[in-house]
Amino acid sequence: MDVSARSKDTFGGGYHERIARSKTTYDHALRRGTYRSKRRRSGGAFSGWRLALPSGLFALIIATGALLLIGGGAALAFFTGDLPSPQDLAKDPLPQSTKVYDRTGTQLLYQFSEENREVVSYEEIPQVLIDATVAAEDKSFWTNPGVDVLGIVRAVFSDVTGRGSGQGGASTITQQLVKRRIVGDEVSLKRKIREGILAIEVTNTYSKQQILELYFNQIYYGNQAYGVKAAAQTYFGKSDLSKLTLAEAALLAGLPQSPSILDPTQAENADRAQERRLYVLNQMVDTGAITQDAADAANAVPIKVAEAPVATIKAPHFVFQVRNQLTQILGGDEAAVSRGGYRVTTTLDMTKQEIGERQVSEWVEKLHNRNVWNAALVSIDPQTGEVLAYVGSVDYNNRDDPRVQGQFDVAGIGLRQPGSSFKMFNYVTALKKGATAATVVVDARTDFGGKADPTRMSPAACGYCPENADLQYHGPVTMRQAIRESRNVPAVKFLAEYSGIEDTIQTAHDLGITTPIDPTTIGLSLTLGAKEVHLVDMASAYGVLANMGVRVTPTYILKVEDSHGKVIWEHKDYEQKRALDAGIAWVMTDILKDTTNPAKDFIFGSWTNIGRVAALKTGTTDNLKDVYSVGYVPTLVTGVWMGNSNGDRMSTVDFASATGPGQLWRDYMKEALADTPASDWPRPANVVSGTIVSAPGAYGGYGSGLAPSALSPFSMTEWFIKGTEPVKADDWFVAGCPQPDGTAKVAMSIKDTRAPAAFQRYTDQWVRDAMAGKHTYGRYTWNLVGPDPCPTPSGSPTPTRTPVPTRTPGATPTIGFPTGTLPPFPTPKKTP
Fold first, then answer.
1. Quick check: 587 pLDDT over 90?
2. Alpha helix ranges (H) inside 617-756
3. Distance from C-alpha of 609 to C-alpha of 602, rounded to nearest angstrom
4. Residue 22 CB neighbours (<10 A)
5. How far apart are CA 490 and CA 466, in angstroms?
6. DSSP for 100-169?
7. Which of helix, strand or coil describes residue 539?
């Protein structure tokens, strides 16, 4: 798009082309007679007569005349020395309103205005309005040279004596135009003379029709209406000037004299407006424009004005984002937004916007008893980057409640911690660096600074000891299980062992996070969402997953047209950048799909299921100041934030990301997608399946993640990027310590070979505790090989071998025992 190529035509309808034409004749104006300007030659009885005078007196007269000429020239130079050129009248663009519409181009969202004006051409102005204006403002307009000489004399007299004549300066239409456009409103004799001189020059430069067009577009009609078209719309609700009646035209023509005291929308002005309209009608009779009967009929019509339009703004925070993008499109010229008269067709889907606003309002209202008072929502088409719904706060007009601060845009301007929803960038980076959905890390309480004694993990002793939200530690878990249960310690271990802080930051930026993140200060808490981000960035980044690794920068605008309807920018042929391998995007999406499936995710699935395939990640900050949900289907990605704008904590009782923003996301998506067919992502060619040692079902996810061996007690199918599927046979399940009867059961020997040596003692402590009966949580029965030597056996045991089962959805096997059904897992006190 070439912004510089946009039209610089000032007045609309090809006005500069009309300015360039030669001046037209006045025949149209003088339709009731022909005007002829004749110069009369000097002559008569005194022609050629000479007066005999003494030579001295004659010399004195000549000298006096010369002095008068010099003085007159000096006076003329004084008044015209720095006089602007009449060409300036049409040089600077008239400010015009920029109108912002929804994606259909039918619903006006807002208009940015320096002056409420819409430029019209002379041909659009009806004759009745021309006749009324000329009759009211300047009867001699069609014949005068640009000034009314008698009017100037009256003005000079008033300025010199300080006494008004009661008739004002009788400024012509041309003088009024010059005053408004060039010389300004200064009250002085010098300004009045300069105005008259310039009005004459303007008349010699432009045709009368051109002057009238400039006047009708420039003049102020009161009630924030600049130009006659805005006035017709403001007072009568008419955008087509040809629909104006005689009574309406007369009223409009009379307003420029004193717009504030003649404004007919104000009850106290009714009588003055009626009198002024009658005056205009009588002047029209006097000029022969209308008959007395027509004037009487028009005067009998009651003045009826349109209801004052309510100054509303639809989707306010979205509209302000449109303004920001439009400013960029226009090369950073902020003034052009409110002066340029552009028509902006945005990406906003009003149906989805209204659903979003209603759902945000209703859910915040429901959650007041959980001390939730604000929320934001952003919905984007991941394939085009078009922002379809944008709710920046629960109530834009709520300025008083500090918990709301409605005019602040939380979605696009606000920086809020995303909690666990940021983990996605960590896990995607790990997949990029060779980890898989089956990769196992140990979920054990760990001091990542290595300081604390594993048996004394107090806050004072810890360097960095993150906790899981449910305060449980599940031992060896796969990436898939760690994500669907949103476990914190495994996330930090993946960051430390696979992803790396700098590479994770780079992934976040590649996918759309714009917040600067300093790797030297953020530390491992990065993956838990310690860095504040914009909600719109999070939605856009998840949109890369929805679009199978292709990033499209978000846009709020579909098309920009200039004041003449010429398209100067359009959202087409936009950049589609490959930010992530399609296979990695698909695998991560497949994992996140578990979160909305109750059969696979017992923590979140019942809260977030929308009746179709969808992927989701939630997030909660430790202090419950921010809760997040970001989820998607192939055609729509939506991010939700809840919290309080003043930083107040939300309730810690029966409230978390799944029950707050998760449910809002669910209800919005179900309604917004009601007319959209359900769909799933096709599996890329580089994604293959493989069998791994991991307990199947929602309560599973523990094991080695390796290929099954003869001693492996269970297995399941997992998805891999081709070439990363495990080939090493499981060596975690081995013969355990001898039992008192001399036998040995198959036991699991945890081998986290990627973990730093400093982590091992924390893993060892978890194993000791599990062997002592801890970490069962109503779902596990552990049979482990401990870090300490086995007691001396009395003989050579033979391990009891458990057959390797196929994956049974929902089944919960125990280690070293036949597959069985365990009691339901209790509801956690707090979910991440």
1. yes
2. 661-672
3. 11
4. 5
5. 10
6. EE-TTS-SEEEEE-SSB-----GGGS-HHHHHHHHHHH-TTTTTSSSS-HHHHHHHHHHHHHS---SSTT
7. helix
Nearest Cα residue to 444 out of 49, 768, 107, 3? 768
Is residue 449 within 8 Å of residue 795, measured between CB atoms? no
Positions of E strands within 328-450: 343-346, 374-380, 387-391, 440-443
**Residues 490, 421: Cα–Cα separation, whole Å:** 14
CB atoms within 10 A of CB 133: 26
Q: pLDDT-based confidence at 195, cuts 50/70/90?
A: confident
Q: Is there a contact between 639 and 542 (Cβ–Cβ < 8 Å)?
A: yes
Task: Pick the closest to residue 18 from 104, 106, 144, 122 (CA basis).
Answer: 122
Task: Decide: helix, strand or coil at residue 569.
Answer: strand
Rounded Cα distance, 819 and 805, in Å: 9
Residue type, 89: L
Predicted confidence at residue 59, as pLDDT, reads: 54
Alpha-carbon torsion angle 49, 54, 58, 64, nearest 10: -130
Query: Tens digits of per-residue pLDDT, 125-171?
Result: 999 999 999 999 999 999 999 998 776 666 666 666 665 544 444 68
User: 443 and 468 in contact (C-beta within 8 Å)?
Assistant: yes
| Owner of token pair 């990033």 | 551
Cα separation, 216 vs 229, whole angstroms = 8
pLDDT tops 70 at residue 451: yes
Q: What confidence score (pLDDT) does residue 378 get? A: 98
The mean of the pLDDT values for the chain is 86
How much is the pLDDT for 181? 78
- Over 80: is that where the pLDDT of 51 sits? no
Exposed/middle/buried for residue 126 (C-beta within 10 Å: 0-12, 13-18, 19+): middle
Question: Which backbone phi and psi does 7 adopt, to 5 degrees?
Answer: -65, 140
Alpha carbons 533 and 412: distance in angstroms, whole number: 9
Angle at CA 25, nearest 5°, toward 23 and 31? Answer: 145
pTM score, two decimals? 0.79
Q: How far apart are CA 13 and CA 6, in angstroms?
A: 14
Query: What pLDDT, in 10s, does the model give residues 609-661?
Result: 999 999 999 999 988 999 999 999 999 999 999 999 999 999 988 898 999 99
- Write the single-letter amino acid at 597: N
